[in-house]
Design brief:
Layout: E1 10-11, H1 16-33, H2 40-65, E2 72-74, E3 78-80, E4 93-99, H3 101-111, E5 114-117, E6 124-128, E7 135-136, H4 139-147, E8 151-153, E9 160-166, E10 169-172, H5 179-189, E11 195-198, E12 204-206, E13 214-216, E14 218-220, H6 221-229, H7 239-252, E15 256-259, E16 271-274
Parallel strand pairs: 1-8, 2-8, 3-9, 11-15, 14-16
Antiparallel strand pairs: 3-7, 4-6, 5-6, 9-10, 12-13, 15-16
């Protein structure tokens, strides 16, 4: 366990399925009871709270089993974006439930929402923008807490997307921030010594799921960029994780490690991205 090795931890997490469930419940409530739907920024905040609770509870059980004493603190985290980000003119992130084509067209006519047909034929899903994260709210407090030995859970689901509607008026916005890029931004800004990105495979692979599949144990930033440009790491899969690793390493000079949870604590585990 990393804690037993003396690491101080900031834990971030995704929320895709959970926000999908929230939006599905919202959709049913609107259809059955004419209740207003919850905006995306509120849905992200909602998911941060209950996912943080679940992580806190289970981690406390693990700490008690190993006679370790740490406070665990969940921070509902806002992340600043630019409402002029080009991503808003070309939404790409599918969210929420699947709709029939007629229902999707009706919602579009009422709200100007953008929908795309699912490639697997399951229906139509709403698309939202995925803007670049610019600033993590409360990052100084996060750094102070973690360097004092507390475990901090933050930037859940990439953070709650906000922007400045006016100079002193912060506003939520309909968007989804990539969790890996937001986590890399936070890790770099608090000068983390290591950046671990957990996924469901032990290593990053070239030619993944082919006969030429090859695991990678180490990548320089230059090599990672080359393989990314060659299409080895798809946008909807390993691509954002590689981009996040590159961002962290370039901004800190420290290593990023991509692996699965079972390999944590193994010094030679996963794929290590290095500055050279």
């Amino acid at each position: 366990m990393l804690i037993q090795k003396g690491y101080n931890l900031v834990i971030t997490h995704g929320n895709g399925p959970q926000v999908g469930n929230i939006m599905l419940a919202n959709s049913a409530a609107k259809r059955l009871y004419d209740m207003p739907e919850m905006p995306i920024d509120i849905s992200v905040a909602y998911s941060q709270g209950f996912i943080g609770y679940v992580i806190e509870k289970q981690l406390r059980n693990v700490l008690r089993a190993h006679a370790l004493d740490r406070d665990i603190i969940t921070i509902i985290t806002q992340v600043l974006v630019d409402n002029d980000d080009p991503a808003f003119s070309k939404p790409t992130k599918p969210i929420g439930p699947f709709y029939a084509k007629e229902e999707a067209e009706k919602i579009t006519s009422e709200t100007q929402a953008i929908f795309r047909e699912d490639p697997q034929g399951r229906g139509w899903r709403r698309l939202v923008a995925s803007p670049e994260p610019l600033l993590i709210s409360n990052q100084k407090s996060i750094e102070n807490l973690v360097r004092s030995g507390q475990i901090v859970i933050a930037v859940g689901g990439g953070g709650i997307p906000t922007y400045f509607k006016a100079i002193n008026e912060l506003q939520g916005i309909e968007a989804v921030i990539d969790k890996d890029l937001a986590s890399a931004l936070l890790a770099g800004n608090i000068n983390a010594d290591r950046f671990f990105i957990l996924t469901d495979v032990p290593n990053v692979y070239l030619n993944f799921n082919t006969r030429q599949e090859r695991p990678l144990s180490r990548l320089s930033v230059k090599e990672a960029k080359i393989y990314l440009d060659e299409g080895h790491f798809p946008e909807g899969s390993m691509g954002p994780k590689i981009q996040a690793g590159i961002h962290f390493v370039k901004h800190t000079g420290n290593d990023a490690i991509i692996t699965n949870g079972e390999q944590l604590g193994n010094d030679n585990a996963g794929t290590r991205i290095t500055i050279v």
